[in-house]
């Protein structure tokens, strides 16, 4: 991880861009992350273990949490779960291990993004910017109103979603992903395209998209193992079908599709 002072000018006075809680028991990492976020214009609070993080979270609700996975007394997964019990808050999880299981578990716990140590603090600031930008987008930029189809109903202004009249407990990214698919029913998207359009990233691990699709299916499908709404299009990516075919039948394009650069095959 870079540990030199930022060589770029600050983008605003501390606090003008929002409040971030940084939770990490490594003082060197915490100092560097806090410094970069301050320089980027964020007000930053710091905690070095889970109980302290929950106390600061309760006292001053942050706009976003940067949360280390490996913490004393209480791991990051449990801290994330307890924070989410009090309502949605964007979480970027830090992990010292590159194990896919840890990254996927972090996303399934409700984290909106993860960064593997060692990392570039500048990249982390970009991730914070991206996640907060999405969190603050209460309504889509094009002014689209409520969305519905296939028994699903979403209100971007109130960030509420339901299926067949029953409320859906969606994370920030799950809501954005479902809203994007509802705006483009019947169209297949590669994972790279979904990452760019929903996450606002031109980089990143495509398993992030895969995990969110799987979690979303678990909340909107009658049988997530045999999806009828969010379907896999082999060799391309995913498609939302509002008038689905028989359950369990995966969509296959009639002609060879144009695969996005870098490949778009989904798991």
From TrEMBL:
Coiled coil: none annotated. Residues 19-132 form the Response regulatory domain. The modification 4-aspartylphosphate is found at residue 68. GO terms for biological process: regulation of DNA-templated transcription. InterPro entries: CheY-like_superfamily, OmpR/PhoB-type_DNA-bd, Sig_transdc_resp-reg_C-effctor, Sig_transdc_resp-reg_receiver, WalR-like, WH-like_DNA-bd_sf. PROSITE patterns: OMPR_PHOB, RESPONSE_REGULATORY. Keywords: DNA-binding, Phosphoprotein, Transcription, Transcription regulation, Two-component regulatory system. GO terms for cellular component: cytosol; protein-DNA complex. Residues 144-242 form the OmpR/PhoB-type domain. Residues 139-160, 244-267 are annotated as: Disordered. Residues 144-242 bind DNA. GO terms for molecular function: phosphorelay response regulator activity; transcription cis-regulatory region binding. It comes from the Bacteria. PANTHER family: DNA-BINDING DUAL TRANSCRIPTIONAL REGULATOR OMPR (PTHR48111:SF4), REGULATOR OF RPOS (PTHR48111). This is Two-component system response regulator.
């Amino acid at each position: 991880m870079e540990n030199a002072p930022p060589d770029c000018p600050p983008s605003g006075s501390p606090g003008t861009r929002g409040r971030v809680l940084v939770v990490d028991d490594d003082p060197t990492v915490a100092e560097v992350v806090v410094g970069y976020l301050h320089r980027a214009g964020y007000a930053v609070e710091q905690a070095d273990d889970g109980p302290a993080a929950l106390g600061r979270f309760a006292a001053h609700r942050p706009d976003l949490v940067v949360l280390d996975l490996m913490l004393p007394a209480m791991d990051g997964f449990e801290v994330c779960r307890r924070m989410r019990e009090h309502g949605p808050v964007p979480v970027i999880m830090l992990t010292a291990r590159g194990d896919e299981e840890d990254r996927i578990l972090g996303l399934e716990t409700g984290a909106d993004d993860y960064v593997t140590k060692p990392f570039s603090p500048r990249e982390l600031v970009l991730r914070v910017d991206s996640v907060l930008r999405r969190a603050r987008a209460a309504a889509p930029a094009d002014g689209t109103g409520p969305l519905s189809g296939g028994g699903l109903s979403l209100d971007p202004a109130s960030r509420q979603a339901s299926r067949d009249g029953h409320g859906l407990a969606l994370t920030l990214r799950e809501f954005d992903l479902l809203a994007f698919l509802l705006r483009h029913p019947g169209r297949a998207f590669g994972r790279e395209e979904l990452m760019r359009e929903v996450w606002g990233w031109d980089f990143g691990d495509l398993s992030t998209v895969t995990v969110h699709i799987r979690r979303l299916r678990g909340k909107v499908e009658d049988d997530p193992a045999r999806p009828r709404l969010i379907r896999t299009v082999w060799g391309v990516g995913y498609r939302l079908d509002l008038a689905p075919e028989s359950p369990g039948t995966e969509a296959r394009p009639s002609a060879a599709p144009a695969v996005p650069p870098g490949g778009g095959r989904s798991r």
